[in-house]
Structures are given as structure tokens and as C-alpha cells.
Design brief:
This protein is mainly beta. Helix content is about 0%, strand content about 55%. It is built from no helices and 31 strands. The strands form seven sheets. A six-stranded antiparallel β-sheet has the order 15-16-17-18-19-20, with no helix packed on it.
Length: about 350
């Protein structure tokens, strides 16, 4: 059913920002907003105003991850770079073969632990700067730390590998035929969910008695559900890839046999999702540039940004307190919503 009445508007509470290039990813390092740009640059906005740094000069950023201490980026120049508010970017790794950095990840609750993948090799750097690695039989497409940071999930062809970094233990392999190009852990570490090349999600329920973990197949998308976001309590997983935000229930044993919720139905596909860090409120960004806040309790909608031609939403992110929502777009436009009250 298509929305027929206009949602209440919050547009007057949005401060615009010109990032200057396609926003690949964003996040908050304390009160400072940090944006990773596809052209190799990064932009910060905080107490010192808006600043731009060249994280990957004459190269492009392929992957990014933001934590409390800064922005981690990997580029097509074979470099892994950490950028902190008000400080020039610091190179953490340079591959002698200049291999493309497929993905980067950081342990959000840790002390600086990070990981990155290049081809079939996955690297881990601990808080002291010591690096360990593991070689996989196929390319590591995407990375995600478990909530406690003890394991690293690596999305690959035909499944996901779970690796204990810094140990001699061989990775555990969760098999499912097909190409897996994204991966997330549930907040309670009971589930691992991957994004598949064939417009679907696949999940594994860990800790199941028997030889194989429980499988969960989540299909029906019109496009690849590349953006995923867990609710604050881990009970719901929101996803992009359809003309509504598809929200899967993860109470109990997970979503098998249960229908997902569809929120924010519009004549445009959802391209980015971000759950509020403390409430059942979902920010949904669309390919036509629109952003809605959707309250799950009653499906009510608030308009953050109207549709803007050729300015599709590519990134969304709440600050820790849940008072500010940042967004970035494919044309370099960006902004910050400050919730009133």
C-alpha cells in the first residue's frame, strides 16, 4: 500500500553539509561526524568546524568503519588508514603488492582492534599494534567483529568463516552455496547473517545442538539488501533492498516461519537503514533521496528529507545518544538532523 498522506516534517531541524563527493560511509567519533568519501577524502564536522583530509590521495576509498576513536578506511591503493578528529590521517598498513582492500572492520567496544581483507588474506591488528593473519581458500568479501570482539566473521564464496584472531585455531566455516558479500552479528552473538549476491539474506543460528547450525533463508528482495541494522535489543533486523524497509523478527529462534514487517512503503527502494540506538525508531533512506523516521510501535512516519533527484541516500548513522542522525548521498550532499526537544 503506497503512502497517501504526507508524514509530519522535521526538515527544519536538518543542517546541510556539502561533502563534495559520493559519501561511502559515515559515523560518529564522540561529538564529531566523520564521512568517508569515494574519491579518497574524508570530511569531519565538529567543534572545529568542517574539515577535509586526504586519507587516500590519488586513490579511492573502498571500505570504511567508524568507531569512538576515529574513522578506519581501506582503499584501492592497498592502504589501511585511521583518521581521528582534528588529526591528519595515519597509515596503519600498506600492502607491498598494492592489493585492493576489500573491507575493513573495527571492534566498536574494544581498545582499537581492527581487521581488513585483501584477496584471500585477512589481517588482524590488536590494540598493541601486533598483526596476525589467516589465509582463506577464497576471497574475503566482508568482515564483522562479534560483539565481544573474540571472533571475526568473514563473508566468502559459499559461506562465512568464523576466525579467532591471534590464535592457531582454524576458522569455523558456515556453509551455504552462493556468493556472500556482507555479514553482521546479532548483538547477543546468537546469529550471524550474510548478504547474498542473489538478492537475499542468509542466517545461521549458532550454538544449535548437532553437527550444523540452524539455517535461516530470507528472500523476496528486489535488489541486494546491502544495508542492515539491528534494533538496540537485537530483537529486529532492518534491511534495505525493497520499496519498504524489511524488518525481520529475531525473537526466540529467529525469523524462520515468521513474516517480516514492511515499513515506510514508497515508490522508491530503500538504500540505507539505521535503527535508533535506544528506541524502536528506524531511519530509512531511499534511492530517490528521501529519508523517513519510522516508529515501529504504530508505523507513524516523520519526514527528515524530501526526495531529491540524483541524490540517493548512501549512508545513515545515529550518534551514541540518539539525538542526532547524519546522512550522506551519492552526489556529495550530506546533513545532520538534530531531534527537537
Amino acid at each position: 500500500m503506497i503512502q497517501t498522506s504526507a508524514p509530519v516534517s522535521l526538515t527544519e531541524h536538518v543542517a546541510s553539509l556539502d561533502a563534495g563527493s559520493h559519501v561511502l560511509g559515515l559515523g560518529w567519533a564522540g561529538p564529531t561526524l566523520m564521512l568517508a568519501l569515494a574519491d579518497g577524502g574524508m570530511v569531519t564536522r565538529g567543534d572545529a568546524g568542517t574539515q577535509r583530509f586526504e586519507a587516500h590521495p590519488q586513490a579511492g576509498i573502498v571500505a570504511s568503519a567508524v568507531g569512538p576513536d576515529g574513522l578506519l578506511t581501506g582503499g584501492d591503493d592497498g592502504r589501511v588508514v585511521c583518521s581521528r578528529p582534528g588529526i591528519a590521517p595515519q597509515e596503519l598498513f600498506r600492502d607491498a603488492k598494492r592489493r585492493w582492500i576489500n573491507d575493513v572492520a573495527r571492534h566498536a567496544g574494544g581498545k582499537g582492534e581492527i581487521a581488513w581483507s585483501m584477496g584471500r588474506e585477512v589481517m588482524f591488528r590488536d590494540a598493541k599494534g601486533l598483526i596476525s593473519n589467516v589465509a582463506l581458500p577464497v576471497t574475503g568479501e566482508a568482515l564483522a567483529f562479534s560483539p565481544k570482539g573474540l571472533r571475526l566473521a568473514v563473508a566468502t564464496y559459499n559461506g562465512v568463516s568464523l576466525w579467532y584472531p591471534g590464535t592457531e585455531v582454524a576458522p569455523e566455516f558456515l556453509e551455504w552455496k552462493g556468493s556472500h558479500i556482507g555479514v553482521v552479528w546479532s548483538p547477543d552473538a546468537r546469529f550471524v547473517v550474510s548478504v547474498m549476491q542473489e538478492n537475499a539474506l542468509h542466517g545461521w543460528r549458532l550454538g544449535v545442538k548437532g553437527d550444523k547450525p540452524g539455517h535461516m533463508r530470507m528472500t523476496g528482495y528486489a535488489a541486494k539488501p546491502r544495508s542492515l541494522s539491528w534494533s538496540h535489543d537485537g530483537m529486529w533486523l532492518a534491511s534495505s533492498g525493497a520499496d519498504a524497509a524489511i524488518i525481520w523478527p529475531f525473537q526466540g529462534d529467529g525469523p524462520m516461519g515468521k513474516a517480516p514487517r514492511e515499513c515506510g512503503v514508497r515508490r522508491s527502494r530503500v538504500s540505507s537503514v539505521a535503527f535508533h540506538p535506544h528506541a524502536y525508531v528506524l531511519a530509512a533512506g531511499y534511492e530517490d533521496g528521501c529519508i523517513l523516521l519510522i516508529r515501529m510501535t504504530d508505523a507513524s512516519e516523520l519526514l527528515v528529507r524530501p526526495a531529491v533527484r540524483e541524490s540517493g541516500i548512501t549512508a545513515l548513522g545515529w550518534d551514541k545518544a540518539g539525538k542526532k542522525l547524519a546522512f550522506g548521498c551519492m552526489d556529495g550532499a550530506a546533513g545532520v538532523l538534530t531531534l527537537p526537544g
